[in-house]
Amino acid sequence: MNTTHPNTNDGLPPHVARRLGHDADLQVDGGGDWPAAVDVLVVGAGPAGSACAIELARAGLAVMLVDQHDFPRDKICGEGLIPDAHAALRHLGVLDEVMARAQPVAHVRCVAPRGGQVDVPGRLAVLPRQVLDTLLVRQARHCGALVRTPWKFDGLIESDGRVRGARLRAAGDPAQVRELATRWVVMATGAAVPALIKADLCERRTPTGIALRVHVHAPDLADRLTTMDVVWHRALRPGYGWIFPCGDGLFNIGVGAFFQRGQSGDGANLHELFDAFTRVHAPARDLMQQARWRGETKGAPLRCTLRGARLGRPGVLATGEAIGSTYDFSGEGIGKAMETGMLAAACIRGGDTAMDGEDRRAADAAVLARYGSAVAALQPRFDLYERANQVNHHPWLADLVIWRARRSASVLRRMSGVLEETSNPGNLLSLKGLMRLFSSR
Ligand SMILES: Cc1cc2nc3c(=O)[nH]c(=O)nc-3n(C[C@H](O)[C@H](O)[C@H](O)COP(=O)(O)OP(=O)(O)OC[C@H]3O[C@@H](n4cnc5c(N)ncnc54)[C@H](O)[C@@H]3O)c2cc1C
Fold it and tell me: Cα–Cα distances in Å, from 42 out to 105, 168, 230, 341?
């Protein structure tokens, strides 16, 4: 099956195109004057960067949020919002606006290689990133942050062992360069590493996973495919396939591959995995056969496990997927990106004083130490997700867990707890956890 298609909305009814953010009222003006200096420059206006900018602007700091793209912009993603994302969006003051445009979903349907399936309840929704990320950028501006796009981070300005600002280039006109003085730069540049390398914060250049998705419109299947389907199968190793409903018969369908520590992922072919998905999972086949419109099939890297980047040095912090804030095994990262962005903001806020000299050095060290501890506190949970990644490599484990969940309310509750983060997948899949499956009622 050919999986590349032109990126056009031709043939999409306007109300469906609106679900993808193609409506005039979503535009964000990224122009305006440039101050000589701001308190904090946030580079990257994904969920991590916008969350960070919102928190800092709310605290009264002078913040500039820049991105290499104008908004709305596309971001390759499954676009599923799980409970952690709902909580972060509520905290940031945009949950109602997000839910007014999102497709609410009641269950994740887990499908095992032998066809067994179980519906796990949770607070879930699907919203194309063109819309979600734009709503967050708009909230950052509403809270007082300056938003400048399309500007590309080009490097840090440093003196006396400290970052003092950053150099930015107009994305459409690379000859146009701006230098901005700032007390802190926050690198929220996602899974692509070039900006992180330029900031000298990158410790791992290879991704921990890769994934591919396409939007398709199949209105005849809207009533049938109402859950967020996640499908494990031998043919999809080392990953899984998904179908997420975006509403009005629009779907996000894709596959991801997750590598184990030390593996580079060479040889994983997402297009082959995608073709396999449409062979082994009948709803995926029906969707691709009946789709009246297909967007462009696009792949992207994932940075998981909360490793692979320096968290910062005096005057600069990294946050979001740049520091690997996406969960291994599941590939969920929108909520955790916002959480780490908010943590970075809280640490800068706590140590933001205009002092210089020794006091400044001590204040910098305190910000870095606070951020280091806050991120380290998240590490155990990320380690458990890394352990759970064995399901993607040994999908028969999904047969076992799903078979038990269909017979045991307590196992189903624990799976729902994984979504709510009250229980975790690593424990469910540990030897002890697997043995407990057989004693659960
Ligand atoms: C195919 C796929 C499916 C996924 N599905 C899901 C899902 O269903 N649910 C979920 O929760 N997570 C999912 N994820 C993970 C999720 O996309 C990420 O965890 C999340 O986007 C990370 O947010 P972020 O803000 O850290 O980075 P991003 O969202 O990547 O934002 C980074 C921003 O930085 C900008 N930037 C980069 N370099 C520069 C530069 N030099 N100058 C200026 N700007 C720059 C980029 O333009 C971008 O806007 C998926 C990922 C993939 C690849």
Answer: 32, 12, 34, 10
Q: Token digits for 140? A: 């950052």
The CA distance from 51 to 339, in Å, is 8
Q: Output the six-digit token pair for 136.
A: 């967050």
More confident residue, 423 or 413: 413
Q: What is the pLDDT of residue 11?
A: 78
Which string of b and e fits 46-82 if b means at least 16 CB within 10 Å? Answer: bbbbbbbbbbbbbbebbbbbbbbbbbbbbbbbbbbbb
In a mutational test of the pocket of ligand 1, which residue from 68, 244, 419 has the highest number of ligand atoms less than 8 Å from its CB? Answer: 68
> Across 112-201, where does the E strand assignment appear?
117-126, 146-148, 151-159, 162-170, 173-187
Residue 1, pLDDT above cutoff 70: no
- Encoded amino acid at 87, one letter: A
Residue 156's φ and ψ, nearest 5 degrees, are -95, 150
Alpha-carbon distance 406 to 118, whole Å?
6
Region 230-254: what's the mean pLDDT? 96
pLDDT band at residue 4 under the 50/70/90 scheme: very low
Reported as a single tens digit per residue, the pLDDT across 32-69 is 999 999 999 999 999 999 999 999 999 999 999 999 99
- The answer, yes or no, to whether any atom of ligand 1 lies below 6 A from the CB of 47, is yes
Identify the H or E element spanning 313. Answer: strand 312-313
Work out the pLDDT band at 358, boundaries 50, 70, 90. Answer: confident
Task: Measure the CA–CA gap between 55 and 52, rounded to whole angstroms.
Answer: 5
Ligand 1 site, residue 209, Cβ cutoff 6 A: no
Among the atoms of ligand 1, which is closest to the Cα of residue 212?
Answer: 1
Write a three-state SS string for 235-246.
HHCCEEEEEEEE
Per-residue pLDDT averaged across 375-388, rounded?
90
Which pair of tokens denotes residue 329? 């095994």
Closest residue by Cα to atom 31, ligand 1, is: 46
